[in-house]
Amino acid sequence: MTAMWPLVAMENALFGDPSLGWERRCALVAEAGFAGIYAVPYPLADDDLVRLAALDVVPARHGLRVAGVYANIDLALAPDAPWNARVRRLFEIIAGVSRVELSFKCSVPSREAPAWEEAIVARLEPLLAVAERRGLEVALYPHSFYPLETVREAERVVQRIAHPRLGFAFPVSHSYALCSAEETARQLRACANRLAGFNVCGCRRLAPQPPAKCAHFPPDEGDLEIAPLMAVLHEEGYRGDIVVQGHGWQGDLPGMLRRAAAYPGFRKEIAASSLPREAVDRTAPEARFPGAESHHLTS
């Protein structure tokens, strides 16, 4: 049998059909051939907290593990505002998952350039205290057009805080929204051996050139070639999950999941032959994170 990375589906691949509850989502992900599911309780509501307190129970019935859960902090709101308080509550009660991935938005644009990094560090420190007490890992989730939008920014925050339970993920669509396909591959190579998580999908920019938001599709669609990215992961020895991002999928959702799970590029042998080593320069120190300057974050 061809070796593959563990494949995980984000539950948002099934958000296009609001009639599908958590039980049915887990069943469809398992039937498609995935090993795990990634929970996306977004926007996080009080009703979600009941599910999060026993998050692995339903997936386990379908032979799935819960690979991660997504949460979002709003920097425009006070830490004790309901939106952010629910995230704190998530950290305190979540069970059946070891990693929370966090993005940081700002729902109220500021007329002045805020010190985003300071704000993010201040919000992270109490959450990391809970994570340490409860044995959780935390991964920063760079999100295009949010205050923390690039892998470079995420790693800078990780290095600054230097907490053993804090890392960062690489969401392909959010990198590709901000830079070229070649620069996306270079950025991935620069950090692949330090990643806490990796998610990918078929990406189509909504404008010809970056920066531009991306629409998400199964991996056999889109204008970004995925094979070079998988080759980078193989060459750099990435051992984590391949998480399939499904936000915005429409149509035959079970069929799209099956196609994603069967995507040949997720096989390591195919990835190993997809990209000549010289195609991505990993030696130039000035190119560690090329093209990844923020549109928002200030030092």
Name a few traits of the molecule.
single chain, 299 residues, alpha/beta, eight-stranded parallel beta barrel, 11 helices, 35% helix, globular, disordered C terminus
Summarize the structure.
This protein is 35% helix and 17% strand.
Describe this structure in words.
- The protein is an alpha/beta fold.
- The protein is 35% helix and 17% strand.
- The chain contains 11 helices and 10 strands.
- It has helices spanning 22-32, 46-52, 57-61, 82-93, 116-134, 151-161, 172-176, 181-191, 227-235, 253-261, 268-272, and strands at residues 7-10, 36-39, 65-74, 99-105, 137-140, 166-171, 197-200, 202-205, 214-217, 242-244.
- The strands form 2 sheets. An 8-stranded parallel barrel has the order 1-2-3-4-5-6-7-10, surrounded by 5 helices.
- Helix 8 runs parallel beside helix 9 (227-235).
- The longest helix is centred in the middle third of the chain and has 19 residues, at 116-134.
- The termini are far apart.
Mean pLDDT: 90
Largest sheet features = 8 strands, parallel, barrel
Number of helices: 11
Weakly predicted, low-confidence segments: 277-299
- Gyration radius, in Å: 18 Å
Annotation, overall tally of beta strands:
10
What's the layout of helices and strands?
Layout: E1 7-10, H1 22-32, E2 36-39, H2 46-52, H3 57-61, E3 65-74, H4 82-93, E4 99-105, H5 116-134, E5 137-140, H6 151-161, E6 166-171, H7 172-176, H8 181-191, E7 197-200, E8 202-205, E9 214-217, H9 227-235, E10 242-244, H10 253-261, H11 268-272
Helix pairs in contact: 1-10, 8-9
